[in-house]
Automatic annotation (TrEMBL):
Residues 6-244 form the Carbohydrate kinase FGGY N-terminal domain. Transmembrane segments: none annotated. The lineage of its organism: Bacteria, Bacillati, Actinomycetota, Actinomycetes, Micromonosporales. This is Sugar kinase. Keywords: Carbohydrate metabolism, Kinase, Transferase, Xylose metabolism. It comes from the Bacteria.
Length: 512
């Protein structure tokens, strides 16, 4: 007998993931489509939005193929904040500029800070301008691609793009809007038109809804492509990290969600509006909630880079070798700033550092150092959250990195904090499915996704990691100027894209 179910699809940095879930929270099916972002220049990270839609269509058809379920609602989420500009008909004008890992807008950040005032922006928008700010990226397009920008009429992010393609409705959720600094007023939960009209006078900003509110229903055209029924409700959706927090019930005051993915993300639910120059003060995904949020520019991206560098051994083998390496990684220390860094240092020109290398170090040592670098970065962000007024009472882990025990154990050991590990750590797609289920029935995340284990810190390692953390903080300070100089050299070296043969020679050792 066919069961009533919901679909949740999330567009991530390295893949799109979909789940088919019955109304009791049981996962009936799941599938993934892997993709790569485009990096045309250092600091530029883009993606063609058509890939998002093609992957959504493929995922949905695959999930529906067994014919076991009647889909009664659809959930969507995606990486963000991103900037996808389209014309008045919703046709993309250029690839989407991705979130804070894209650092091209530093000039616009400086200009907008001078124009509106750093303090005024912080007070109105909840966050300082940074490479995470969608408004600064919009300003970059206006400044550097004026002929294209003159045709721009609509702003989308991955979740709102999927909702638009499915329903024809042009909407954005409140949380995503709150990361469009300086276009949004976090006090009054609305677009701040005086600044928005100055930065993008012809852009029609989308009407705002909450993540779980219905954006619209599946159109006949979308139904023919996806296999969904005409009229199926589609939620508005939100940014992936906030959907992840929903998926594990990390919505109470004092909850901190740790998202283990291509990047590491932290979302702390706070009792009232808080601001910090080193974090993002945002509106929550659900009505009445407020957050302090933090995000590292890389985490799983470094482990993936190492895997490829080592000749693509599988992750279980690398985790085994890292376990053998032991705490401290044989005397290695890594700064995880391989794509600049977002919070708390807000330094797009930071670069990765591996200190202490000798000819005796192994793959396991390097991989362990990468895991520990993530833990050290998490601790730095947690301390910054506490200094800004955040009250962290419970930590909940989610994402692909929770599947192996070692990574979460390392983070607990370094931070000294236990982590709740829920039964389902699929993440954002599961959170979108849950919000979709709430549209059609009365469900609770506690019933859907109970905690299955708790990762406790090991107190015998506290002193060693305290020493390593002090060295970690000192290493950035001591290497900052060198990193900035190297970043400037990288910019100069790639100001003009080299011919394909030269790129292959550089990356693969192939003679041009």
């Amino acid at each position: 007998m066919r069961v009533a179910a919901v679909i949740g699809v999330d567009i991530g940095t390295s893949s799109s993931k979909g789940v088919l879930v019955d109304l009791g929270g049981r996962v009936i099916g799941s599938c993934t489509r892997h993709h790569e972002v485009d990096r045309p220049r250092p600091g530029w990270v883009e993606m063609d939005a058509e890939i998002w839609w093609q992957e959504f269509v493929g995922i949905t058809r695959e999930l529906l193929a067994p014919g076991e379920a009647d889909v009664v609602a659809v959930g969507v989420s995606g990486m963000g904040p991103c900037v996808l500009l389209t014309d008045a008909d919703g046709v993309p004008l250029r690839p989407s500029i991705l979130y804070g890992i894209d650092t091209r807008s530093t000039g616009q950040i400086a200009r907008l800070n001078e124009r509106f005032g750093e303090n005024a922006i912080m007070q109105r928008c909840g966050s300082a301008l940074s490479t995470q700010s969608a408004g600064a990226k919009i300003a970059w397009v206006a400044d550097t691609e004026p002929h294209l920008f003159a045709r721009a009429r609509r702003l989308f992010m991955p979740s709102s793009w999927l909702a638009f393609k499915l329903t024809g409705e042009y909407v954005l959720d409140q949380h995503s809007a709150s990361q469009c600094t300086p276009l949004y007023d976090t006090e009054n939960l609305t677009w701040y038109l005086p600044w928005a009209k100055e930065i993008a006078p012809e852009l029609v900003l989308p009407p705002l809804r909450w993540a779980g509110e219905v954006a619209g229903s599946v159109t006949a055209e979308a139904a023919s492509l996806t296999g969904l029924r005409v009229g199926t409700p589609v939620i508005t959706g939100t940014i992936d990290a906030w959907s992840e927090a929903i998926s594990v019930g990390a919505q109470g005051v004092g909850d901190l969600m740790l998202m283990y993915g291509t990047t590491m993300f932290l979302v702390n639910t706070v009792p009232n509006r808080l601001t910090s120059p080193s974090l993002w003060g945002t509106v929550g995904a659900l009505p009445g909630t407020r957050n302090l949020a933090a995000g590292m520019a890389t985490s799983g991206a470094i482990t993936g880079w190492l895997r490829d560098l080592f000749g693509s051994p599988d992750y279980p083998e690398l985790l085994r070798l890292a376990e053998l390496s032991g705490p401290g990684a044989g005397g290695l220390l890594m700064l995880p700033y391989f794509a600049g860094e977002r919070t708390p240092i807000m330094d797009p020109h930071a670069r990765g550092v591996i200190a202490g290398l000798t000819v005796s170090h192994t793959r396991g040592d390097l991989y362990r150092a990468a895991l520990e670098a993530t833990g050290l970065g998490v601790r730095h962000n947690i301390e910054t959250m506490q200094a800004a007024g955040g009250d962290i009472r419970r930590v909940v882990a989610v994402g692909g990195g929770t599947q192996g025990k070692l990574w979460t154990q390392v983070v607990s050991d370094i931070t000294g904090r236990a982590q709740d590990i829920p039964s389902q750590t699929i993440g954002a797609s599961y959170g979108g499915a849950f919000l979709a289920a709430q549209v059609v029935t009365d469900v609770s995340i506690e019933a859907w996704n109970a905690i299955r284990e708790i990762r406790e810190p090991r107190p015998e390692l506290a002193a060693d990691y305290e020493e390593l953390y002090a060295l970690y903080r000192e290493l950035y300070t001591g290497s900052k100027n060198i990193a900035h100089g190297l970043a400037a050299r990288q910019e100069r070296l790639t100001a003009e894209t080299p011919p394909l043969a030269q790129r292959k020679a550089r990356t693969e050792g192939v003679a041009p």
